[in-house]
Every structure is written in C-alpha cells, then in structure tokens.
Fold this protein.
Amino acid sequence: IRLHYAYPAQFPMEILDVMARHDNVCKYLDIALQHISDKVLKNMRRHITGDETKALLDEIRRKVPGIHIRTTLMVGFPGEGEEEFSQLKEFVRQQRFERMGAFAYCEEEDTFGAKNFEDSIPEEVKQSRLNELMAIQEEIALESNQSKIGKRLRVIIDKEEDDYYVGRTQWDSPEVDPEVLVKKTEKLEKGHFYDVDIIDALPYELIAQPSLQ
C-alpha cells in the first residue's frame, strides 16, 4: 500500500501510526507542498504556513523512521520574488527530500491565480529558477542513493531489459521515482519480490545484483 497525493493542511496524523506499524504499508509519502514562503502559500490558498509545513515534516519523519518523502514544488507563482525563491531553495537544502519534482507556474484560465494575480514573472526567469532548484535536488538525490550502497534491499521486478532487470524498492513509485537496475546474474521473474545488494548509485537509479542466499 502506497500513499499518494496527500494534502499538507489538516494532514491526518493517525495515518503515520498505521504506516509505522504495518509492514504492508510502504514507508513512503507523496505530499505536494508547492512552496515554503508564507506569502506564496497564501497567494496559492494552501491553508498552511511555512512553519506549519516544517513542523509537519518533522513529525512525519519522527513517527515513521526511514520514510521517504516525495513532494512537488512550484516556481514562478505570482508573488514569488528573489527572497521567496531563496527561501524555497534553502527549504530544499534543509529538508533533503528523497524524492522531489518541480514545475514552473503556467497560468490557467478560470483558476484563482489567473483571476486574482498577474502572471508577471518572465518565462526565462521561471525556467532559470526551475533549473536551479532541480540542480540542488539532483545533488541531494545522488547523496541519498549513495547512502544505500552496500545495503540489501527488497525489490519488485517490473520488467526485463537486454542487460538488466528493472525493479523498485518500497520507496519507488512506478514511473515517477528512481529504478533499481539489477544485473542478470540469475533468472528473475516479473512481479516477484527479491532481495538485492546495492553496488552503485546514480542520482535517479540504483545498480544492484541479486543477493547471494
């Protein structure tokens, strides 16, 4: 069981106790935070402050040791100046999300943002901020993956390629998260679970071999 699309405001904290207690619930949470600046969060109508967001993340990690958090952030929303973007960058550096995606604001007709705010940030500024934020995250993702080298992890095999099998740990959601590339030293079956030893790491991939039983 994997939890996706959690909303940070009024987060149901009792879910964390269930996650920590049951092995069939992945130690993984997808929760779209969007931003950390109070000004931008208010403009977005997220109904949560930056400090409340940080306190929530602290409690999630305290109650579920080893959890991997996936979040999505937005750059270029109306009201995001250099100060607000700097706050966002520092937030990413401090939180060290195991999984993070980001995108640039694009005005959509009839949305609250389009009706109430001018889309005044140039597209090249939005893209520059997006690139800068994802460069910070790539370093964090690499360090997170490198910390798994030498560990034995359980994976489910999704598919077979010419040179390796493609698997996922409990921390990897299909299509959006890193994959585990398992060397073909023995026959593995799609849809089955196996223990593998992590032998190398890239920012968004782990390299593994089947564990010797």
